[in-house]
Amino acid sequence: MSDVVTAPPASAIYRPAALNYGFSGAGTDLDRCSASIRRGSKSFHIASLLLPRGTRQAAHALYAFCRHSDDAVDARGRRADVLERLRERLDRLYAGTPSDHACDRAFARLVETHAIPKAVPVALLDGFEMDMTERRYRTIAEVKDYAAGVAASVGIMMALVMDTSEPWALSRAADLGLAMQLTNIARDVGEDLANGRLYLPEDWLAEAGVDIAAFRAAPRFTPEIGAVVARLLSEADRHYALAHAGIAALPADCRHAIRTAALTYREIGREIAGAGYDSLSRRARTSLPRKLAIMLAARRPVALPEGLAAAARLAPPDPSVTALVAAAAGHSGARASAPPGGAGGLDRFATLLLDLERRARADRRPVRPAAGEGAQGGMAGHV
Asked: What does the pLDDT profile of the chain (383 residues) look like in tens digits?
């Protein structure tokens, strides 16, 4: 028997979102979205396996659309109108007639089922647009405006998928997105400079005595750069603390997964600190055994400073996400529930290890895409 997996023709699975359920192709779309997260982010994939089945599928659909859009914008030789075409596709999927891509069809079902306000994914594309321009980030507030689009928007959508719509809880979900993106920026200073981008706040660099023009022309690590990276990670930690306080507002069967994702990303910051805050000559990584250890530790809530949990309910959203929180507040949608039964504790952990190995084997099998359908995680040519 051949190991090649043949996808059904696009005509067999392209239907309006409202009709594309059951055996009509939705399962195929979700499989492709799941493959995207397995290949694109081991950290998020591991955390997502802890979610209830319905929520996990929604998270994979969300990730696939975001990853696809990001890859399209970042692709070498991208079309000049790539963002315009992504915006058109967003319009189509909100109209219930998504374009012929698995991630579009799956995301269309997601926004329909969970009533995701269009303003939130629009903010995501706005954030990607910032990456396409020679943009300068003069202050941390401007850096957070960027992070709000590319990351906090995703946190808010995930909260809505988990049927969490109180404004304070949405604010804390946005805090987690901000914290993760600030961690990304701290980790990728060297890589971003190689691509002509600098996300470190220019006023912080100036305060540290860094000649910004010289640094961009000839990037190299110095104690002054390390001080700015450390300051950025300190700001990320403030948002992580607020985010952990908000995890209590999530459904009980979702908290472990979100806590795992938060702690895994926080570990990247610790790796950077352990290397003297040098993220130009190296890129911080977290090993799989360490990620699994974090997963086990994340079964219990993170200890927070006294009074922070109560204060987090009253703390306003960061100014960068105020409009997004307002757009999403008041949402009321049905959260997909977990299937009955299921393992718990160490049994669940062992099941996840076996599932990771099974999925890794599946990813090594060649897949022949259907006509008009690109491979998830690298579909820029089909935008």
From this structure: 333 333 333 333 344 444 443 334 566 665 666 565 656 556 666 777 899 988 988 888 888 888 888 888 887 667 778 999 999 999 999 999 998 888 898 899 899 999 899 999 999 999 999 988 889 999 999 999 999 999 999 999 999 999 999 999 999 999 999 999 999 999 999 999 999 999 999 999 999 999 999 999 999 999 999 999 999 999 999 999 999 999 999 999 999 999 999 999 999 999 999 999 999 999 998 888 998 899 999 999 999 999 999 999 999 999 999 999 999 996 544 443 333 334 444 444 544 554 555 555 554 555 444 433 333 333 333 33
Q: How far apart are CA 223 and CA 322, in angstroms?
A: 35
Residue 113 CA to residue 26 CA, distance in Å, equals 13
Could you identify the residue written with the tokens 């701290």?
186
Which residues partner with 37 through β-bridges?
Answer: none
Q: Cβ atoms within 10 A of the Cβ of 311, count?
A: 13
d(CA 133, CA 141): 18
Q: What are phi and psi of 6, to 5 degrees?
A: -100, 120
CB 149, CB 130: distance < 8 Å = yes
Contact between residue 186 and residue 269 where contact means Cβ atoms under 8 Å apart: yes
Please give the DSSP secondary-structure letter assigned to residue 148. Answer: I
Using an 8 Å Cβ cutoff, are 1 and 362 in contact? no
Give CA–CA dist 58/64, Å, rounded.
Answer: 10
> What is d(CA 292, CA 342) in angstroms, rounded to the nearest whole number?
20
Q: Global pTM?
A: 0.80
CA-based end-to-end distance of the chain: 34
Amino acid at 84: E
**b/e per residue 191-214 (b: at least 16 CB within 10 A):** ebbeeebbbbbbebbeebebeeee
Q: How many other C-beta atoms are found inside a 10 Å radius of the C-beta of residue 364?
A: 7
Please tell me whether residue 300 adopts helix, strand or coil conformation: coil
Confirm if 119 and 49 have CB atoms less than 8 A apart.
no
Beta-strand ranges (E) seen in 101-188 are none
- In order of 67, 128, 183, 271, 296, the CA distances from 284 in angstroms are 21, 24, 10, 6, 22
